[in-house]
Amino acid sequence: MSERVRPGRANAEASSRQAFVEATARLLQRQGYTGTGLNEIVARSGAPRGSLYFHFPGGKRELAAAAMEHSGGRLREAIAAILAGSDSVGAGLAGLVDALAAGLLASDYRDGCPIATVALETASDAPELRAAAASVFDSWLEAIAAHLRAGGLDAASAERRSLLVLAAIEGALLLARARGNLTPLQAVREELLALTP
């Protein structure tokens, strides 16, 4: 007869796994993959060190991929909610830029895109992280494309335009962090506000 896992233990295991994922997501967004060490992840998570490899036998790369998926999923939900709450294509895209600009400003320009930071560092060396980044970016592109289709664009045009929108926003985030001001995001916001299908 197999041993059953007690509900309290199962909750504690799920909780420690989630703590590792959330701590890693936060650290990756701020300092990237190379700058984030396992000791720092364990310390920030508050979870038992011994459970790290139980939950993530693939080590740091597996944990980073899970953290990217977690961050990416949360941001995808936020993107969809912001776009759904707008009354026009341009207003929705401008609202998205406003939300990202507010987050960047609140972090004093330390927190950029939670996916791009890792993707730029690891794309050529870590196929599992490149795949995680691609999957997340694809989910964001689909949320933007859905908004554009709802605004009247056909599917092919919405797909192309969503690439333009995401590339502009990602580039503006990078430039804003480098410059330490919101000017690039404000410029992109104005162009997207005028965007119509």
Tags for this entry?
197 residues; mainly alpha; Tetracycline Repressor, domain 2; 75% helix; elongated; disordered N terminus
Tell me about this structure:
This protein has helices spanning 7-31, 38-45, 52-55, 60-84, 89-106, 116-122, 127-150, 155-179, 183-193. With 197 residues, the chain is an all-alpha fold. It has one domain: Tetracycline Repressor, domain 2 (Orthogonal Bundle), CATH 1.10.357. Helix 4 (60-84) runs parallel beside helix 7 (127-150) and helix 8 packs antiparallel against helix 9. The longest helix is centred in the first third of the chain and has 25 residues, at 7-31.
The count of domains is 1
CATH topology label: Tetracycline Repressor, domain 2
How many H/I helical runs?
9
How many strand elements? 0
- The low-confidence parts are 1-10
Could you tell me how far the N terminus lies from the C terminus, measured between alpha carbons in angstroms? 62 Å
Name the average pLDDT.
Answer: 91
Query: What class, by secondary structure content?
Result: mainly alpha
Q: Find the CATH superfamily.
A: Tetracycline Repressor, domain 2
Please state the CA-atom Rg, rounded to the nearest Å.
Answer: 19 Å
Strand content: under 5%
Helix and strand element order: HHHHHHHHH
Largest sheet descriptor: none
Shape descriptor reads: elongated
CATH top level is Mainly Alpha
Query: Can you name the CATH architecture?
Result: Orthogonal Bundle
State the helicity in percent bands.
over 70%
